[in-house]
Each structure stands twice: as structure tokens, then as C-alpha cells.
Specification:
heterodimer, A: 301 residues, alpha/beta, Rossmann fold, 2 domains, 10 helices, globular, B: 293 residues, mainly beta, Porin, 1 helix, 13 strands
């Protein structure tokens, strides 16, 4: 038990010596939420993202470096709806950080503040990687981003009451710029209305709904299951009856199936930036959604 | 088993759990990369070291992952549990190297009091004797894991290298008995002092979302074994080095199922060279937590 008391006194010593941070330590699960925290908190938060645009947020591992980051976080900003179910619970448990446990003020999930699409009647393993709460790729609807921004500003103010006015002011400013940008995107994206899509994964449904596009088919036979030759043949057969105009995939999905369908149908395969940082120009939320709309329009020509 | 985050990096776990020593010890068999446990663990730790007790872990508030752990428990699966115990301590460090690489290294110490721990030993007449050990076992384990995934995206391709070294020091009394008249063990007890070690290294490459291939080399070193004088002509230190090579290929139709074919060249028993083929199917049922790194 001598080791226990040594450890206890070490903990105590480090606890007392820990510097007082002025800024909140925020760990975002995805780059879009890291970008949103930067918009709302400015220099009152130090933000890191657990995933990069090259990583599938369904499938990363609870790496030691992420446990170390979660250990010091005041706030987790994640999508929720089980998107991060494979690794976030481990970060919360292994980091020993009670502030970010489910139900705490330091655990923020965007899915709590928006209406999710594709909520299944039942969930079965036969259905592939289906989320009981609904489709988690909610940030692809700018209306959702605005709702999450409001909730995030409230949460930041709750965690850091001294700077509540700062968060509220930055949120107002962001909401104004975002609303204006949304109007611009809607006008520019008018030619996209009714455009039929094939998508690699069922991840563009929110974007499609917002811009009035139609997701005709997905290349994955079931969510999270790799495209098979048999399923692609079926996709091709159906696309002869109901042609698709664009074939969409993300940075972290293999382009092979999309390119195969492009060759067969002539519809362009498009790697669409799915989050902030997915292309060099998509440096913040507005620049990213600009890029999404421009990429779609350019591919349609 | 219940884990509670106390805050400030502290977690406490109570109940029955797999000890945090080493790397593979905490993995459930369905998560193993080969059909069987490595030789060092199976020979010295009984596949897994599971116990009933208390674990305290502390993650340091450093940018690099640094974790300390302490365990105090009844020495489960090590014979009579009354009043006997085990203590363990470990430290883990880990980090990323760029976006494509991540690693973890650890050092662990385990001290177990054994009473009546059963074993089997070929006596000097080549008869399998039953042994019981009373005394202290001390273990040192060094472990290292390195994972690579291009751009940090393991979906299509990834590689994992993993190696562990286990050293065991035992000090106490051994009694041995044969159940046949031809045996050399008349049912005697004397002192027993042994220093043994083992290690393995393995690499697993996922080259397709559903396919992985892996190679493992494992080996034991009999080291030094000192028997008390009563064992003269009864038990002797084995003079060979058990080793094994394994090659596996597995197919993963979904997150919940895995079909594996494994070939092993097994030289773990004296004078025997065994070629083994294993076909394994793993299906996970029910809700099931995420796997650690």
C-alpha cells in the first residue's frame, strides 16, 4: 500500500500545481464541430479535433493520444446518434475525466438539438451499421448547423459563465453571416434541384434534402458494408431505368466503386468535401459549404 | 465489474476483471489476432490473468499519454484464495507519430502468492507428474504496440505490430506426485526456485476491408530452475526451448463475425514438431463494448 500513498500524494501535488487555464479545453469529435467551436468561442477555447477529414468518424480507434486529450478536456463536442459509439465511450471511461461523462455539462452532442432523418422502426444487425437514433450525418444541412450553434453557445456560457456575453455576441455574429451565406447558396444551388444522386454511403441525405436533390441509390448494399459486385450490378441495372446525374463519395471512402459506376453510366464521380478541411479551400464552415455548392455545380456542367 | 471515473484522471474498477498488466491480457479471446494465446501467456499466466479485486488508474495531465495503474486482488485461479493475494502495478505511455502512426508501450509488475497451484511436469522417468506450488511468483512484462493506417483511416488498409516479453521468478516449495508406480515422484516436497521468460512478436496486415493476414513468432526460455535436494533424480530442468510460428488469414464479413484459417509450426513440447491447422469461426452475440487500442 506504500505505492498507493505515493501515487495519492503525487496526484495531490500535480492537482495543486496544475496551472489555471483561462481558455476552455475543447475536444471536438469531428472537424465541423471544431470549426463551430472556433466560430462561437474565438480565443476563449483551445480546440482540437479527434478526427481529420481523412478519417471515418465511425471507425477510428481510441488511440492513447486521444485519451490524453480527453483527459484534459473541459468539453466534448460530438455528433452523437451513435456515430462515435466505437471509440468515444472508451475515451470517456479511460481518460478518468468526470467532466465529460455522458449527462455532464462537458458532454455536448449535436444530435440532441436537431430532428434526425432516417429514424428506423427497428434496428437489426442484418441492416448493417444502422443507428437507432437516426442518420448521424446531420451537419450537412446548414439549418442544423445554425441550431447546433445556438445550443453550443448556451452550453459554453453554462461552462464559462464569466464569458457568457462573449459567446452570445459571437454566436449572433455567426448566425448573421451563416444566414446570409445560406441565402446565397440557395440561389446558386437552384440548378441542383431535383438532381438524382448515387452516394457511396447514406451520408448525404441532409444535404440532398436541403438542396432538393434526390438520393436514388447507395453503392453500399447496407450502411457500413463495402460495395459488392452483385450490389453494384443491381445499382447499374436500376440506374438504366432511373438515371443518376452525380455519384458522391467522401475523402475517407474508396473511390473505386464510384469510378466504376462513372465508367458505366457517364455520370461523374465526385469527391465532395464532407467537412471543414476536406479540401485546402474549406478552411472554415462558410468556405466549406461554398466549396460543396461549387463542386456540385461544376460537376453538373 | 464496474468502472468509475473519479475525475482528475483517476478511475477505479472493482469486481472481477482482466488485469491491466501487459497488452494482450485485457483482450477477450474473440479479439485475439490468432486462434490461440501466445506461449508466454499460456505457459506463465494461464492464458489471461483475471482476478477479483480493485484497480486504480491515473492518467497524467500530459500532452503525451501517460498512465499509471495499481491493482490489489485475490489471486484468482491460483489455488486456494483465502487470505492470499496479488498486487500489480503498471505504466503505459503512448502517442501518435504524424497522422498515420500510433503506438503504446508498457511495463508491468505482478506479484502473486500461490498456494497449491497445480502443474504438470515430466519426471526423470518420463512420467507426467502432478505438482503443486506454494510460494511467490513475480512477473515483469514489457509490451509494445505500433499501428499504422494510411492517413489514419484503417478501413481499407492497416498494419499492427505487437510484441511482449514476460519474465517470471518463482520462489517457494514444490510437491510432486505420480499416479503410476513407474513414476519417479514418490510424493515429496522441497524447495523450488525458477527464473523463466518468454516473448512473442506478431504482425497483422489488413489489406482489404474484410481480409487480414498475420504472422506470430513465440518462444519460451526455460532459464534457471533450482530444485531442492529431495528432487535429485526425480525432477530436472528441461533442456529445450519451446517455440512456435503461426500464420493466419482471416475473413471478416461483418463487425460481428470472423472466419480464420491458421497454420502453426509448433515446437512447444520436447522432441515434438507439430504442424497444426486451425479453422475458427467467431460470432459475437449481444451488445458488446468497443475495443481498446
Amino acid at each position: 500500500m506504500r505505492i498507493v500513498s505515493t501515487l495519492a500524494s503525487l496526484v495531490l501535488a500535480l492537482g495543486l500545481a496544475a496551472p489555471v487555464h483561462a481558455a476552455l479545453e475543447v475536444l471536438a469529435c469531428e472537424p465541423e464541430w471544431a470549426a463551430l467551436v472556433r466560430e462561437i468561442a474565438g480565443d476563449q477555447a483551445r480546440v482540437a479535433s479527434a478526427t481529420t477529414p481523412s478519417q471515418d468518424p465511425h471507425r477510428i480507434e481510441a488511440r492513447p493520444s486521444l485519451i490524453a486529450r480527453a483527459r484534459n478536456a473541459d468539453l466534448l463536442v460530438c455528433t452523437g446518434a451513435e456515430l462515435e459509439a466505437g471509440w468515444l465511450p472508451l475515451l470517456q471511461r479511460e481518460s478518468g475525466n468526470a467532466r465529460i461523462l455522458p449527462g455532464s455539462a462537458g458532454h455536448f452532442e449535436a444530435a440532441d438539438f436537431v430532428e434526425l432523418m432516417d429514424k428506423p422502426q427497428r434496428v437489426d444487425r442484418d441492416m448493417g451499421d444502422v443507428h437507432a437514433a437516426g442518420n448521424p450525418h446531420l451537419h450537412l444541412d446548414p439549418g442544423n448547423v445554425a441550431r447546433v450553434a445556438d445550443a453550443l453557445a448556451t452550453r459554453l456560457a453554462r461552462l464559462d459563465a464569466a464569458n457568457a456575453a462573449h459567446y452570445a455576441a459571437r454566436n449572433r455574429d455567426f448566425q448573421n453571416r451563416w444566414r446570409e451565406a445560406m441565402q446565397g447558396w440557395r440561389v446558386r444551388a437552384a440548378p441542383l434541384k431535383g438532381v438524382p444522386l448515387a452516394t457511396h454511403h447514406k451520408d448525404w441525405v441532409y444535404l440532398a434534402r436541403w438542396l432538393g436533390m434526390r438520393v436514388e441509390t447507395t453503392l453500399e448494399p447496407k450502411p457500413g458494408i463495402e460495395p459488392s459486385a452483385a450490389h453494384l450490378a443491381e445499382v447499374l441495372r436500376r440506374s438504366r431505368e432511373r438515371p443518376v446525374r452525380l455519384i458522391l463519395h467522401t475523402n475517407y471512402q474508396s473511390p473505386r466503386a464510384s469510378r466504376w459506376l462513372e465508367e458505366k453510366t457517364g455520370a461523374p464521380a465526385v469527391r465532395l468535401p464532407h467537412t471543414v478541411g476536406a479540401t485546402p479551400r474549406a478552411t472554415d464552415l462558410i468556405a466549406w459549404m461554398d466549396e460543396v455548392v461549387e463542386t456540385l455545380l461544376a460537376a453538373l456542367k | 465489474m464496474a468502472t468509475t471515473a473519479l475525475g482528475n484522471g483517476l478511475t477505479v474498477k472493482a469486481g472481477r476483471y482482466l488485469s491491466g498488466i501487459g497488452y494482450v491480457n485485457e483482450q477477450h479471446p474473440h479479439a485475439w489476432d490468432f486462434a490461440d494465446q501466445n506461449l508466454a501467456y499460456s505457459a506463465m499466466l494461464g492464458e489471461h490473468y483475471a482476478q477479483d479485486g480493485l484497480q486504480l488508474k491515473w492518467v497524467a495531465p500530459t500532452p503525451m499519454f501517460l498512465e499509471f495503474g495499481l491493482e490489489a486482488a485475490q489471486g484468482a485461479d491460483w489455488g486456494d484464495r483465502n487470505g492470499l493475494g496479488s498486487k500489480a502495478a503498471f505504466v503505459h505511455v503512448g502517442d501518435d507519430v504524424g497522422v498515420s502512426h500510433a503506438w503504446r508501450a508498457g511495463l508491468s509488475y505482478l506479484r502473486v502468492k500461490a498456494k497449491g497451484r497445480e502443474g504438470h511436469w515430466d519426471d526423470d522417468n518420463d512420467v507426467e507428474a502432478e505438482t503443486e506450488f506454494d510460494g511467490t511468483s513475480k512477473f515483469w512484462i514489457a509490451d509494445f504496440v505500433w499501428k499504422w493506417a494510411p492517413e489514419g483511416n484503417p478501413r481499407y488498409r492497416n498494419f499492427k505490430f505487437q510484441a511482449e516479453y514476460v519474465r517470471r521468478e518463482e520462489d517457494g516449495d514444490l510437491s510432486c506426485e505420480d499416479n503410476t508406480p513407474a513414476g519417479a515422484c514418490p510424493g515429496i516436497t522441497d524447495s523450488y526456485d525458477a527464473r523463466q521468460s518468454g516473448w512473442y512478436a506478431q504482425g497483422v496486415y489488413q489489406f482489404h476491408p474484410q481480409w487480414r493476414v498475420g504472422y506470430r513468432y513465440d518462444r519460451l526460455d526455460v532459464g534457471s530452475v533450482d530444485f531442492g535436494p529431495a528432487f535429485a533424480g526425480v525432477l530436472s530442468k528441461p533442456d529445450f526451448t519451446p517455440k512456435r510460428q503461426s500464420l493466419m488469414l482471416d475473413y471478416n464479413p461483418s463487425e460481428f463475425s470472423r472466419l480464420r484459417l491458421q497454420f502453426a509450426r509448433d515446437e512447444a513440447e520436447q522432441g515434438l514438431k507439430d504442424n497444426q491447422i486451425t479453422l475458427q469461426y467467431i460470432h459475437s452475440l449481444g451488445p458488446h463494448g468497443a475495443h481498446k487500442f
